[in-house]
Write a structure and sequence with these properties.
The chain is an alpha/beta fold. The chain has one domain (9-252): Rossmann fold. The protein is built from nine helices and ten strands. It has helices at residues 9-15, 18-30, 47-54, 66-75, 110-120, 138-150, 166-176, 198-206, 216-234; strands spanning 37-41, 58-63, 80-83, 95-101, 121-132, 179-187, 190-191, 235-236, 239-242, 245-252. The strands form two sheets. The protein has a seven-stranded mixed β-sheet, with helices on both faces. A three-stranded antiparallel β-sheet has the order 7-9-8. Helix 2 packs parallel to helix 3 and helix 6 (138-150) crosses helix 9 (216-234). The chain binds benzoic acid (BEZ). Benzoic acid binds at residues 19, 102, 105, 132, 136-137, 161, 206. Keywords: Methyltransferase, Transferase.
Length: 261
């Protein structure tokens, strides 16, 4: 069963703004330059597009969620945003760079995304991205799997995430023709805001497909059971600290070769 996660832009901005705060690290790999055009795949509510614009670049934000794009437009009316699916989008404009933070792990057809990124780039353009890598939130996935299995539900059949190893992902990029310049797979324990409530907010924002069709009271009980399983390992000094692992990559679409004279 494939169920899309439903995004709530207000929850995203008020309780999960660490997603774009952490994204500033991968912007350092992108190094946006004045005047260059950059497509941000999975731009959410647009905060990283705003950072690119501050650096003088000309960002365009794209997201599958119309609610996220509406919020991005009202926060940053001077910037361009559009709704599209990264696995199928088509642009006539070619970009100097394509960027993505915390979005590619929601796209389960990575070959299709990589092909569309390639088509959207100018020759010589770069692709810089960060997303969840193998092992990301593994303890959380295990806890969800166990608690759902006790209720006769199969978590793996509705898992919405793609968390590849670094070798698998860079291989896909190379198969498309990209030259991978930098790739890193690292642990980034992530402290959630709001103390005890932090995990519940995170489950509400990111884990919708696991709880699809569950009556509200059963969802409350399920979330409480997941929290109790995770507490010994992930609740420290009054906060939930999740076991995030990230992949960061920078790759180039090679410039067109001029024929030798
Ligand atoms: C994230 O967006 O960073 C994320 C989403 C799902 C699971 C883990 C991390």
């Amino acid at each position: 069963m494939h169920v899309e996660n439903r995004w709530n832009a207000r929850l995203y901005d008020s309780k999960l703004d660490f997603v774009s705060r952490f994204g500033k690290g991968v912007l350092e790999w992108l190094q946006p330059q004045p005047g260059e055009t950059i497509l941000d795949l999975g731009c959410g509510t647009g905060d990283l597009c705003a950072e690119m614009a501050k650096a003088g670049a000309v960002p365009t934000g794209m997201d599958l969620s119309a609610e996220m794009i509406d919020t991005a437009r009202s926060k940053y009316p001077a910037l361009r945003f559009f709704v599209a699916n990264a696995e199928t989008f088509v642009t006539e404009e070619l970009f100097d760079a394509v960027f993505s933070n915390a979005a590619l792990h929601w796209m389960k057809r990575p070959e299709a995304v990589i092909r569309q990124v390639w088509l959207a780039l100018k020759p010589g353009g770069r692709f810089v991205a960060e997303f969840g890598g193998a092992g990301n939130v593994e303890r959380v996935v295990q806890a969800i799997r166990t608690v759902l299995a006790d209720k006769g539900r199969d978590a793996d059949s509705c898992n919405p995430w793609y968390f590849p190893g670094i070798g698998a992902y860079t291989w896909l990029l190379e198969q498309q023709g990209f030259v991978v310049k930098l790739a890193q797979h690292f642990e980034r324990p992530t402290e959630l805001p709001d103390g005890e409530q932090g995990l519940r907010h995170w489950l509400d924002a990111f884990c919708g497909p696991f709880f699809a069709d569950m009556p509200p009271q059963e969802k409350d009980e399920t979330c409480a059971m997941i929290a109790e399983r995770l507490r010994p390992a992930l609740f420290r000094d009054g906060s939930w600290v999740l076991d995030y692992c990230r992949i960061r990559v920078a790759a180039i679409k090679p410039p067109e070769q001029r024929p030798l004279p």
